[in-house]
Amino acid sequence: MADGGDDDSPYKINEGDYVMLKRGEIYKAVQIQSKKKVVFEKQWFFLDNAVGDLYSTTFEIVSGGQLQPVKPKDEASAASDTKEVGTDNRNIMDDGKSQKLTRDDIETLKEQGLKGQEIIQKLIDNSSTFRDKTEYAQDKYIKKKKKKYENTVTILKPTCRIMALMYHGREPGKICHLRYDTLAQMLTLANVHAGSKVLVFETCAGLVLGAVMERMGGYGSVIQMYPGGGPVRAGVENFGFPAHFHDTLHDFPICHVNALLAGTLDTSPKDPDTGEEAPHPDVAAEAQPKMEDTPDDSENVETNASGEPGTDDDRQRSKDAKAQLKRAKQEERRKKLAAAAAQLEGMNADGLVIASRFHPCPVLMCLLRFLSPSRPFVVYSQYKEPLVECFTKLKEQGGTVNLRLTDTWLRHYQVLPNRTHPMLLMSGGGGYLLSGITVETDHSRQANSEEPAPKKQKVTEEPAAKKQKVTES
Q1: Where exactly are the transmembrane stretches of this chain (predicted)?
Q2: Domain 174-289+313-473 has CATH 3.40.50.150
Q3: Which of 27, 284, 430, 445 has the fewest C-beta atoms under 10 angstroms from its C-beta?
Q4: Is 32 helix (H, G, I), strand (E, B) or coil?
Protein backbone atom coordinates (compact mmCIF):
# COMPACT_ATOMS: atom_id res chain seq x y z
CA MET A 1 0.00 0.00 0.00
CA ALA A 2 1.39 3.39 -0.95
CA ASP A 3 1.69 6.07 1.70
CA GLY A 4 1.02 9.24 -0.23
CA GLY A 5 -1.81 10.79 -2.20
CA ASP A 6 -4.91 8.87 -3.16
CA ASP A 7 -3.05 5.61 -3.88
CA ASP A 8 -4.71 4.03 -0.84
CA SER A 9 -8.21 5.23 -1.73
CA PRO A 10 -9.43 1.69 -2.65
CA TYR A 11 -8.49 0.64 0.89
CA LYS A 12 -10.40 3.47 2.58
CA ILE A 13 -13.97 3.28 3.84
CA ASN A 14 -16.27 5.52 1.79
CA GLU A 15 -19.89 6.47 2.20
CA GLY A 16 -22.17 4.08 0.35
CA ASP A 17 -19.73 1.15 0.58
CA TYR A 18 -20.93 -2.30 1.60
CA VAL A 19 -18.79 -3.48 4.52
CA MET A 20 -18.57 -6.41 6.93
CA LEU A 21 -18.75 -5.82 10.68
CA LYS A 22 -16.83 -8.29 12.83
CA ARG A 23 -16.86 -8.91 16.55
CA GLY A 24 -15.22 -12.11 17.66
CA GLU A 25 -16.44 -14.76 15.21
CA ILE A 26 -19.69 -12.95 14.36
CA TYR A 27 -20.11 -11.06 11.06
CA LYS A 28 -22.77 -8.77 9.64
CA ALA A 29 -23.08 -7.09 6.22
CA VAL A 30 -24.21 -3.43 6.19
CA GLN A 31 -23.97 -0.38 3.96
CA ILE A 32 -22.30 2.85 5.07
CA GLN A 33 -25.07 5.45 5.21
CA SER A 34 -25.04 8.85 6.88
CA LYS A 35 -26.86 9.06 10.24
CA LYS A 36 -28.16 5.51 9.97
CA LYS A 37 -28.30 3.55 13.23
CA VAL A 38 -26.77 0.07 13.02
CA VAL A 39 -27.60 -2.65 15.57
CA PHE A 40 -24.93 -5.34 15.94
CA GLU A 41 -24.63 -7.82 18.80
CA LYS A 42 -27.12 -5.94 21.01
CA GLN A 43 -25.29 -2.63 20.52
CA TRP A 44 -26.22 0.33 18.39
CA PHE A 45 -23.89 2.85 16.78
CA PHE A 46 -23.37 5.06 13.74
CA LEU A 47 -20.81 4.44 11.00
CA ASP A 48 -20.30 8.09 10.04
CA ASN A 49 -16.96 8.39 11.87
CA ALA A 50 -15.57 5.34 10.06
CA VAL A 51 -15.60 7.12 6.68
CA GLY A 52 -12.04 7.95 5.65
CA ASP A 53 -10.35 5.27 7.80
CA LEU A 54 -8.74 2.16 6.36
CA TYR A 55 -10.40 -1.21 6.16
CA SER A 56 -9.55 -3.76 8.90
CA THR A 57 -9.52 -0.93 11.47
CA THR A 58 -10.90 -1.77 14.91
CA PHE A 59 -13.18 0.87 16.44
CA GLU A 60 -14.46 1.34 19.98
CA ILE A 61 -18.07 2.33 20.56
CA VAL A 62 -18.13 5.41 22.79
CA SER A 63 -21.02 7.46 24.19
CA GLY A 64 -23.66 8.51 21.70
CA GLY A 65 -22.99 5.52 19.42
CA GLN A 66 -19.90 7.11 17.89
CA LEU A 67 -16.92 5.10 16.67
CA GLN A 68 -13.38 5.84 17.78
CA PRO A 69 -10.33 4.00 16.37
CA VAL A 70 -8.58 1.81 18.92
CA LYS A 71 -4.92 2.67 19.41
CA PRO A 72 -2.46 -0.27 19.35
CA LYS A 73 -1.08 0.63 22.77
CA ASP A 74 -4.49 0.18 24.36
CA GLU A 75 -4.86 -3.43 23.30
CA ALA A 76 -2.54 -4.86 25.95
CA SER A 77 -3.39 -2.41 28.72
CA ALA A 78 -5.78 -4.79 30.46
CA ALA A 79 -3.05 -7.36 31.04
CA SER A 80 -0.45 -4.87 32.33
CA ASP A 81 -0.80 -5.89 35.97
CA THR A 82 -1.17 -9.64 35.55
CA LYS A 83 2.39 -10.73 36.16
CA GLU A 84 1.65 -12.84 39.25
CA VAL A 85 0.54 -16.32 38.28
CA GLY A 86 -0.19 -19.50 40.16
CA THR A 87 1.02 -23.03 39.55
CA ASP A 88 -2.13 -25.06 40.18
CA ASN A 89 -5.90 -24.56 39.76
CA ARG A 90 -7.03 -27.47 41.93
CA ASN A 91 -7.59 -25.40 45.06
CA ILE A 92 -9.68 -22.71 43.30
CA MET A 93 -13.40 -23.06 44.05
CA ASP A 94 -15.88 -21.64 41.53
CA ASP A 95 -18.55 -20.70 44.10
CA GLY A 96 -19.35 -17.23 42.74
CA LYS A 97 -17.89 -15.47 45.80
CA SER A 98 -14.45 -14.65 44.41
CA GLN A 99 -15.62 -11.47 42.61
CA LYS A 100 -16.26 -8.51 44.90
CA LEU A 101 -17.91 -6.32 42.25
CA THR A 102 -21.64 -6.84 41.83
CA ARG A 103 -23.72 -6.35 38.68
CA ASP A 104 -24.86 -2.94 39.98
CA ASP A 105 -21.26 -1.88 40.52
CA ILE A 106 -20.38 -2.81 36.95
CA GLU A 107 -23.37 -0.87 35.60
CA THR A 108 -22.26 2.13 37.66
CA LEU A 109 -18.78 1.91 36.13
CA LYS A 110 -20.36 1.90 32.67
CA GLU A 111 -22.42 4.98 33.50
CA GLN A 112 -19.27 6.75 34.68
CA GLY A 113 -17.85 6.32 31.17
CA LEU A 114 -15.22 3.67 31.85
CA LYS A 115 -14.04 1.80 28.77
CA GLY A 116 -14.11 -1.94 28.36
CA GLN A 117 -10.38 -2.29 29.10
CA GLU A 118 -10.75 -0.35 32.36
CA ILE A 119 -13.75 -2.42 33.48
CA ILE A 120 -11.80 -5.64 32.83
CA GLN A 121 -8.91 -4.30 34.93
CA LYS A 122 -11.37 -3.50 37.76
CA LEU A 123 -12.67 -7.06 37.61
CA ILE A 124 -9.13 -8.42 37.79
CA ASP A 125 -8.25 -6.22 40.79
CA ASN A 126 -11.40 -7.25 42.69
CA SER A 127 -11.02 -10.99 42.04
CA SER A 128 -9.65 -12.94 45.00
CA THR A 129 -8.65 -15.98 42.91
CA PHE A 130 -7.27 -14.43 39.73
CA ARG A 131 -3.63 -14.30 40.86
CA ASP A 132 -3.79 -17.92 42.03
CA LYS A 133 -4.72 -19.15 38.55
CA THR A 134 -2.16 -20.43 36.08
CA GLU A 135 -1.03 -18.28 33.16
CA TYR A 136 -3.29 -20.17 30.75
CA ALA A 137 -6.31 -19.81 33.03
CA GLN A 138 -5.66 -16.07 33.36
CA ASP A 139 -5.55 -15.63 29.57
CA LYS A 140 -8.80 -17.56 29.25
CA TYR A 141 -10.43 -15.36 31.92
CA ILE A 142 -9.33 -12.15 30.17
CA LYS A 143 -10.59 -13.35 26.76
CA LYS A 144 -13.95 -14.23 28.27
CA LYS A 145 -14.33 -10.80 29.89
CA LYS A 146 -13.17 -8.99 26.73
CA LYS A 147 -15.90 -10.71 24.75
CA LYS A 148 -18.49 -9.53 27.27
CA TYR A 149 -17.42 -5.98 28.15
CA GLU A 150 -15.31 -4.69 25.26
CA ASN A 151 -17.38 -2.48 22.94
CA THR A 152 -15.28 -2.87 19.82
CA VAL A 153 -16.10 -3.64 16.19
CA THR A 154 -13.83 -4.26 13.19
CA ILE A 155 -14.80 -3.10 9.69
CA LEU A 156 -13.66 -5.39 6.87
CA LYS A 157 -13.92 -5.34 3.10
CA PRO A 158 -16.41 -7.96 1.83
CA THR A 159 -14.94 -11.11 0.31
CA CYS A 160 -16.47 -14.45 -0.64
CA ARG A 161 -14.70 -16.14 2.28
CA ILE A 162 -16.07 -13.68 4.84
CA MET A 163 -19.53 -13.85 3.27
CA ALA A 164 -19.46 -17.66 3.47
CA LEU A 165 -18.40 -17.50 7.13
CA MET A 166 -21.21 -15.04 7.89
CA TYR A 167 -23.94 -17.12 6.25
CA HIS A 168 -22.64 -20.43 7.62
CA GLY A 169 -22.46 -19.02 11.14
CA ARG A 170 -25.82 -17.23 11.20
CA GLU A 171 -28.14 -18.78 8.59
CA PRO A 172 -26.60 -21.96 7.12
CA GLY A 173 -29.94 -23.11 5.73
CA LYS A 174 -30.00 -20.18 3.28
CA ILE A 175 -26.84 -21.42 1.58
CA CYS A 176 -27.64 -25.16 1.75
CA HIS A 177 -25.02 -25.53 4.53
CA LEU A 178 -22.24 -24.68 2.06
CA ARG A 179 -18.94 -24.28 3.92
CA TYR A 180 -16.30 -21.79 2.82
CA ASP A 181 -13.67 -24.46 2.09
CA THR A 182 -16.17 -26.31 -0.11
CA LEU A 183 -16.92 -23.07 -1.95
CA ALA A 184 -13.20 -22.57 -2.61
CA GLN A 185 -12.96 -26.07 -4.09
CA MET A 186 -15.93 -25.37 -6.36
CA LEU A 187 -14.23 -22.29 -7.82
CA THR A 188 -11.05 -24.29 -8.40
CA LEU A 189 -12.70 -27.38 -9.89
CA ALA A 190 -14.80 -25.23 -12.26
CA ASN A 191 -11.64 -23.36 -13.38
CA VAL A 192 -13.29 -19.96 -12.87
CA HIS A 193 -11.01 -17.19 -14.08
CA ALA A 194 -11.11 -13.81 -15.79
CA GLY A 195 -12.34 -13.85 -19.37
CA SER A 196 -14.30 -17.10 -19.13
CA LYS A 197 -18.00 -17.77 -19.69
CA VAL A 198 -19.52 -19.53 -16.69
CA LEU A 199 -23.03 -20.92 -16.15
CA VAL A 200 -24.28 -20.74 -12.57
CA PHE A 201 -27.39 -22.41 -11.15
CA GLU A 202 -27.70 -21.80 -7.42
CA THR A 203 -30.20 -21.25 -4.62
CA CYS A 204 -27.68 -20.05 -2.02
CA ALA A 205 -28.90 -16.43 -1.68
CA GLY A 206 -26.44 -15.32 -4.37
CA LEU A 207 -23.32 -16.41 -2.45
CA VAL A 208 -22.01 -18.75 -5.17
CA LEU A 209 -22.84 -16.23 -7.89
CA GLY A 210 -21.00 -13.47 -6.04
CA ALA A 211 -17.98 -15.72 -5.49
CA VAL A 212 -17.81 -16.49 -9.23
CA MET A 213 -18.07 -12.79 -10.11
CA GLU A 214 -15.35 -11.92 -7.60
CA ARG A 215 -13.00 -14.55 -9.03
CA MET A 216 -13.57 -13.29 -12.60
CA GLY A 217 -12.81 -9.68 -11.62
CA GLY A 218 -15.32 -8.09 -14.00
CA TYR A 219 -13.96 -9.77 -17.17
CA GLY A 220 -15.87 -12.38 -19.12
CA SER A 221 -19.54 -13.26 -18.73
CA VAL A 222 -21.67 -15.01 -16.11
CA ILE A 223 -25.06 -16.46 -17.00
CA GLN A 224 -27.28 -17.12 -14.00
CA MET A 225 -29.83 -19.85 -14.66
CA TYR A 226 -32.62 -19.26 -12.17
CA PRO A 227 -35.86 -21.03 -11.25
CA GLY A 228 -39.10 -19.27 -10.43
CA GLY A 229 -40.15 -15.75 -11.29
CA GLY A 230 -36.80 -13.98 -11.00
CA PRO A 231 -33.16 -14.33 -9.91
CA VAL A 232 -32.20 -14.06 -6.23
CA ARG A 233 -29.14 -11.86 -5.71
CA ALA A 234 -29.28 -10.71 -2.09
CA GLY A 235 -25.74 -11.92 -1.42
CA VAL A 236 -24.37 -10.30 -4.59
CA GLU A 237 -25.43 -6.84 -3.39
CA ASN A 238 -23.46 -7.27 -0.15
CA PHE A 239 -20.25 -7.74 -2.15
CA GLY A 240 -20.45 -4.12 -3.30
CA PHE A 241 -19.14 -4.79 -6.81
CA PRO A 242 -18.41 -1.84 -9.15
CA ALA A 243 -20.89 -1.08 -11.92
CA HIS A 244 -18.85 -2.78 -14.67
CA PHE A 245 -19.07 -6.10 -12.79
CA HIS A 246 -22.84 -6.14 -13.31
CA ASP A 247 -22.40 -5.51 -17.04
CA THR A 248 -20.97 -9.04 -17.35
CA LEU A 249 -23.93 -10.64 -15.53
CA HIS A 250 -26.85 -12.15 -17.45
CA ASP A 251 -29.85 -14.13 -16.24
CA PHE A 252 -31.94 -16.73 -18.02
CA PRO A 253 -34.98 -18.64 -16.69
CA ILE A 254 -34.31 -22.35 -16.68
CA CYS A 255 -37.91 -23.05 -17.71
CA HIS A 256 -37.08 -21.66 -21.19
CA VAL A 257 -34.06 -23.91 -21.80
CA ASN A 258 -36.00 -26.53 -23.76
CA ALA A 259 -37.48 -23.84 -26.01
CA LEU A 260 -34.00 -22.42 -26.60
CA LEU A 261 -32.61 -25.85 -27.52
CA ALA A 262 -35.53 -26.52 -29.85
CA GLY A 263 -35.18 -23.11 -31.51
CA THR A 264 -38.72 -22.03 -30.59
CA LEU A 265 -37.83 -19.33 -28.04
CA ASP A 266 -39.54 -16.07 -29.08
CA THR A 267 -37.77 -12.89 -27.94
CA SER A 268 -39.60 -10.49 -30.24
CA PRO A 269 -41.38 -7.53 -28.59
CA LYS A 270 -45.02 -8.17 -27.67
CA ASP A 271 -47.89 -5.90 -26.66
CA PRO A 272 -48.69 -6.58 -22.97
CA ASP A 273 -52.45 -6.23 -23.61
CA THR A 274 -53.04 -8.06 -26.89
CA GLY A 275 -50.00 -10.34 -27.01
CA GLU A 276 -49.28 -9.20 -30.57
CA GLU A 277 -46.07 -7.65 -31.78
CA ALA A 278 -45.72 -4.20 -30.23
CA PRO A 279 -45.11 -1.16 -32.44
CA HIS A 280 -41.81 0.66 -32.42
CA PRO A 281 -41.53 3.19 -29.53
CA ASP A 282 -41.32 6.08 -31.99
CA VAL A 283 -44.50 4.94 -33.76
CA ALA A 284 -46.27 4.55 -30.44
CA ALA A 285 -45.22 8.06 -29.43
CA GLU A 286 -46.62 9.51 -32.64
CA ALA A 287 -49.92 7.72 -32.07
CA GLN A 288 -50.38 9.44 -28.69
CA PRO A 289 -52.52 12.62 -28.88
CA LYS A 290 -50.63 15.84 -28.30
CA MET A 291 -51.51 18.15 -25.43
CA GLU A 292 -52.49 21.07 -27.67
CA ASP A 293 -54.78 18.85 -29.79
CA THR A 294 -56.97 17.73 -26.87
CA PRO A 295 -60.42 19.30 -26.76
CA ASP A 296 -61.33 21.83 -24.11
CA ASP A 297 -63.32 20.04 -21.42
CA SER A 298 -63.34 22.90 -18.94
CA GLU A 299 -67.13 22.85 -18.87
CA ASN A 300 -67.28 19.12 -18.05
CA VAL A 301 -64.87 19.17 -15.08
CA GLU A 302 -65.70 16.58 -12.42
CA THR A 303 -64.28 16.00 -8.97
CA ASN A 304 -62.80 12.71 -7.84
CA ALA A 305 -62.91 11.11 -4.39
CA SER A 306 -60.15 13.36 -3.06
CA GLY A 307 -61.95 16.53 -4.18
CA GLU A 308 -59.54 17.23 -7.05
CA PRO A 309 -60.89 17.95 -10.54
CA GLY A 310 -60.77 15.08 -13.00
CA THR A 311 -62.08 14.32 -16.46
CA ASP A 312 -62.32 11.28 -18.68
CA ASP A 313 -59.29 12.50 -20.63
CA ASP A 314 -57.23 12.72 -17.41
CA ARG A 315 -58.12 9.18 -16.48
CA GLN A 316 -57.38 8.02 -20.00
CA ARG A 317 -53.95 9.70 -19.91
CA SER A 318 -53.26 7.96 -16.58
CA LYS A 319 -54.14 4.60 -18.10
CA ASP A 320 -51.95 5.32 -21.12
CA ALA A 321 -49.03 6.25 -18.86
CA LYS A 322 -49.38 3.00 -16.89
CA ALA A 323 -49.60 0.99 -20.09
CA GLN A 324 -46.51 2.70 -21.45
CA LEU A 325 -44.62 2.02 -18.20
CA LYS A 326 -45.68 -1.62 -18.35
CA ARG A 327 -44.58 -1.82 -21.97
CA ALA A 328 -41.20 -0.32 -21.10
CA LYS A 329 -40.63 -2.88 -18.31
CA GLN A 330 -41.61 -5.71 -20.62
CA GLU A 331 -39.26 -4.42 -23.29
CA GLU A 332 -36.41 -4.30 -20.77
CA ARG A 333 -37.07 -7.89 -19.70
CA ARG A 334 -37.22 -8.95 -23.35
CA LYS A 335 -33.86 -7.36 -24.09
CA LYS A 336 -32.27 -9.10 -21.10
CA LEU A 337 -33.72 -12.42 -22.18
CA ALA A 338 -32.48 -11.94 -25.75
CA ALA A 339 -28.98 -11.00 -24.53
CA ALA A 340 -28.78 -14.09 -22.30
CA ALA A 341 -30.12 -16.32 -25.10
CA ALA A 342 -27.43 -14.98 -27.43
CA GLN A 343 -24.79 -15.99 -24.88
CA LEU A 344 -26.20 -19.51 -24.64
CA GLU A 345 -26.86 -20.18 -28.34
CA GLY A 346 -23.16 -20.61 -29.04
CA MET A 347 -23.03 -23.72 -26.81
CA ASN A 348 -19.50 -22.67 -25.88
CA ALA A 349 -19.56 -22.08 -22.12
CA ASP A 350 -16.29 -22.61 -20.26
CA GLY A 351 -17.65 -23.91 -16.97
CA LEU A 352 -20.75 -24.96 -15.06
CA VAL A 353 -21.42 -24.52 -11.32
CA ILE A 354 -24.53 -26.00 -9.67
CA ALA A 355 -25.41 -25.57 -5.98
CA SER A 356 -29.10 -25.69 -5.11
CA ARG A 357 -31.72 -27.32 -2.93
CA PHE A 358 -33.31 -28.93 -6.01
CA HIS A 359 -32.42 -32.38 -7.29
CA PRO A 360 -29.28 -31.77 -9.38
CA CYS A 361 -29.62 -34.62 -11.90
CA PRO A 362 -32.14 -33.12 -14.38
CA VAL A 363 -30.51 -29.68 -14.08
CA LEU A 364 -27.05 -31.10 -14.77
CA MET A 365 -28.14 -33.17 -17.77
CA CYS A 366 -29.88 -30.16 -19.26
CA LEU A 367 -27.12 -27.59 -18.77
CA LEU A 368 -24.24 -29.84 -19.82
CA ARG A 369 -25.29 -29.31 -23.44
CA PHE A 370 -24.17 -25.67 -23.28
CA LEU A 371 -20.57 -26.56 -22.39
CA SER A 372 -17.80 -26.83 -24.94
CA PRO A 373 -15.73 -30.04 -25.01
CA SER A 374 -12.91 -30.30 -22.45
CA ARG A 375 -14.67 -27.95 -20.03
CA PRO A 376 -15.09 -28.60 -16.29
CA PHE A 377 -18.28 -28.75 -14.27
CA VAL A 378 -18.95 -29.09 -10.52
CA VAL A 379 -22.14 -29.90 -8.61
CA TYR A 380 -22.64 -29.34 -4.87
CA SER A 381 -25.18 -31.10 -2.70
CA GLN A 382 -25.62 -31.30 1.03
CA TYR A 383 -26.39 -35.01 0.66
CA LYS A 384 -24.55 -37.81 -1.12
CA GLU A 385 -27.42 -39.75 -2.69
CA PRO A 386 -28.41 -37.16 -5.37
CA LEU A 387 -24.81 -36.94 -6.56
CA VAL A 388 -24.50 -40.73 -6.68
CA GLU A 389 -27.47 -40.74 -9.06
CA CYS A 390 -25.80 -38.04 -11.18
CA PHE A 391 -22.56 -40.05 -11.21
CA THR A 392 -24.36 -43.19 -12.43
CA LYS A 393 -26.31 -41.28 -15.07
CA LEU A 394 -23.17 -39.64 -16.46
CA LYS A 395 -21.39 -43.01 -16.62
CA GLU A 396 -24.27 -44.51 -18.58
CA GLN A 397 -24.70 -41.56 -20.93
CA GLY A 398 -21.03 -40.88 -21.61
CA GLY A 399 -19.58 -37.59 -22.76
CA THR A 400 -17.68 -36.96 -19.51
CA VAL A 401 -14.37 -38.07 -18.04
CA ASN A 402 -12.51 -37.74 -14.75
CA LEU A 403 -15.69 -38.02 -12.70
CA ARG A 404 -15.02 -37.59 -8.98
CA LEU A 405 -17.37 -37.62 -5.99
CA THR A 406 -15.61 -36.16 -2.95
CA ASP A 407 -16.34 -35.29 0.67
CA THR A 408 -14.19 -32.76 2.55
CA TRP A 409 -13.41 -33.01 6.26
CA LEU A 410 -12.33 -29.81 8.02
CA ARG A 411 -11.17 -29.22 11.57
CA HIS A 412 -9.82 -26.06 13.21
CA TYR A 413 -6.74 -26.08 15.41
CA GLN A 414 -5.76 -23.71 18.19
CA VAL A 415 -2.10 -22.80 17.67
CA LEU A 416 -0.60 -21.23 20.82
CA PRO A 417 2.66 -21.81 22.73
CA ASN A 418 2.36 -25.14 24.57
CA ARG A 419 -1.39 -25.15 23.86
CA THR A 420 -1.75 -26.40 20.27
CA HIS A 421 -4.68 -28.80 19.97
CA PRO A 422 -7.80 -29.37 17.83
CA MET A 423 -10.90 -27.36 18.64
CA LEU A 424 -13.53 -29.27 20.57
CA LEU A 425 -16.38 -27.95 18.40
CA MET A 426 -16.25 -28.40 14.64
CA SER A 427 -18.50 -28.53 11.60
CA GLY A 428 -20.28 -31.84 11.13
CA GLY A 429 -19.90 -31.84 7.36
CA GLY A 430 -19.24 -29.65 4.38
CA GLY A 431 -21.44 -31.37 1.80
CA TYR A 432 -20.39 -33.34 -1.28
CA LEU A 433 -18.96 -32.35 -4.65
CA LEU A 434 -19.29 -34.07 -8.03
CA SER A 435 -16.84 -32.82 -10.64
CA GLY A 436 -15.81 -33.85 -14.13
CA ILE A 437 -14.79 -32.74 -17.63
CA THR A 438 -16.86 -32.84 -20.79
CA VAL A 439 -15.61 -34.60 -23.95
CA GLU A 440 -16.92 -34.71 -27.49
CA THR A 441 -18.51 -38.00 -28.48
CA ASP A 442 -18.99 -39.50 -31.95
CA HIS A 443 -22.54 -40.85 -31.92
CA SER A 444 -22.20 -42.59 -35.30
CA ARG A 445 -19.21 -44.57 -34.10
CA GLN A 446 -21.05 -45.50 -30.93
CA ALA A 447 -23.98 -46.76 -33.02
CA ASN A 448 -21.66 -48.93 -35.12
CA SER A 449 -19.98 -50.36 -32.06
CA GLU A 450 -23.33 -51.23 -30.48
CA GLU A 451 -24.61 -53.05 -33.66
CA PRO A 452 -21.92 -55.44 -34.98
CA ALA A 453 -21.91 -56.28 -38.70
CA PRO A 454 -23.64 -59.56 -39.68
CA LYS A 455 -21.41 -62.52 -40.36
CA LYS A 456 -20.85 -63.68 -43.90
CA GLN A 457 -22.65 -66.89 -44.76
CA LYS A 458 -20.43 -67.78 -47.74
CA VAL A 459 -17.90 -69.70 -45.65
CA THR A 460 -20.54 -71.89 -44.08
CA GLU A 461 -22.46 -72.53 -47.31
CA GLU A 462 -19.56 -74.00 -49.38
CA PRO A 463 -18.85 -77.02 -47.16
CA ALA A 464 -22.55 -77.83 -47.14
CA ALA A 465 -22.61 -77.84 -50.98
CA LYS A 466 -19.63 -80.17 -51.19
CA LYS A 467 -21.16 -82.53 -48.71
CA GLN A 468 -24.32 -82.67 -50.79
CA LYS A 469 -22.40 -83.67 -53.95
CA VAL A 470 -20.69 -86.51 -52.09
CA THR A 471 -23.96 -87.97 -50.95
CA GLU A 472 -25.44 -87.83 -54.47
CA SER A 473 -22.56 -89.79 -55.95
Answers
A1: none
A2: yes
A3: 445
A4: coil
